[in-house]
Design goal:
Radius of gyration of chain B: 13 Å
Number of helices of chain A: 8
Distance between the termini of chain A: 39 Å
Number of domains of chain A: 2
Number of strands of chain B: 5
Structural class of chain B: alpha+beta
Shape of chain B: globular
Helix content of chain B: 25-40%
Oligomer: heterodimer
Order of helices and strands of chain A: HEEHEEEHEEHEHEHHEH
């Protein structure tokens, strides 16, 4: 790999721009898709690799090529810069999620409380989420316990294609939340997308244990192993 | 996802420090290989390693060849498998087979 190719790959990663690296085997000649013109069969394979987010070998006549997609990392939006969020952020970063923490309360979303690679946003959750435009590569989890903050976030989340939506709170808290979201016009099918109580049931008690149960559930959703996943 | 850790960023940093660097990438797997195609290992001439191409079974052998590749400047395509004598030597005990491409970062 030439240093120039490496620089282009890293710039694409930083800009969240999907690219595919095409390597001819065994001589190592490389092309970047879509930055450089490539034969139609390779372009098709590169598109498929990017769509499926899966590396694949391709035979083109006598030539063997290896197609390696580089897609932007999935995102996790955390609403509520609370204690559980402090434990959640480093775990999320470890499993390869790009994390944004949203909390309009100035005392919470501070650099001092979140040193491990999360973007901090101190806007209201609905404004913040609308600006972040959650897509099918986005997970959203609300942690504030406060309907004033959680509900507007869930309202935006339910209108999005987010691959995971979780909300902290007991069954009783969630039942009341379901009533409010129903009143706000969300149907039962949409509301059923919310994982609540949030996280896999591992008997979590402490903040790091709750964070672990949440991150395990997000990974399960991302890998298609969550029952009833949308 | 081909990997969560940014091996290329580590490779770039090592090169910026003046190290010679080679990259190994899993390009094809059969059977129960522990790491999927696209998994990367970065190796320096001084023996630093980042990432992985297996569960630790063949990293040593790949690193040795990576140092040859840094010297020669010529990439190599390696086969590891249970039917291969080398696999026994380096202990790919899982029964899987894989191809690893090793290239200089230069």
């Amino acid at each position: 790999m030439t240093p120039e190719t490496l620089e282009t790959l890293q710039a694409a990663r930083a800009a969240r721009r999907p690219v595919a690296l095409l390597t001819r085997l065994p001589d190592g000649a490389q092309l970047l898709y879509p930055d450089q013109p490539v034969p139609a069969a390779l372009a098709e394979a590169a598109e498929a690799a990017l769509r499926d987010d899966r590396a694949a070998p391709v035979t083109l006549g006598e030539e063997s090529w290896f197609i390696q997609p580089q897609t932007p990392p999935p995102r996790l939006i955390v609403v509520g810069a609370v204690h559980v969020a402090q434990a959640l952020v480093p775990m999320a970063v470890q499993v390869g999620l790009a994390v944004t923490v949203v909390d309009p309360r100035r005392a919470f979303a501070t650099e001092e409380r979140f040193t491990a690679g999360a973007t901090l946003v101190d806007e209201w959750p609905d404004d913040a989420l609308n600006a972040l435009r959650p897509d099918s590569r986005t997970a959203i989890v609300t942690l504030t316990h406060d309907p004033k903050l959680d509900d507007p976030a869930l309202d935006v989340a339910l209108r999005s294609d987010a691959f995971y939506i979780g909300a902290l709170g007991s069954r009783r808290t969630h039942a009341k939340r379901v009533d409010r979201l129903t009143e706000a016009g969300h149907g039962p099918e949409a509301i059923a997308r919310i994982r609540a109580p949030v996280g896999l049931d591992i008997g979590a008690v402490t903040a790091p244990e709750i964070a672990l149960s949440i991150i395990a559930q997000v990974v399960a959703a991302r890998r298609g192993k969550l029952d009833g996943a949308p | 996802m081909s990997g969560t850790e940014d091996i290329l960023e580590t490779a770039r940093a090592w090169r910026a420090e003046g190290e010679k660097v080679a990259l190994a990438t899993v390009v094809e797997t059969w059977g129960s290989s522990p790491r999927p195609a696209g998994s990367r290992l970065a190796v320096t001439e001084t023996g630093r390693l980042a990432g992985s191409v297996s569960g630790g079974c063949i990293e040593g052998a790949v690193a040795d060849i990576a140092r040859q590749v840094m010297q020669s400047g010529t990439p190599q395509l390696l086969d590891f498998g249970i039917s291969d004598e080398r696999a026994w030597e380096v202990g790919l005990a899982c029964g899987g087979k894989l191809k690893v491409f090793v290239e200089p970062l230069a």
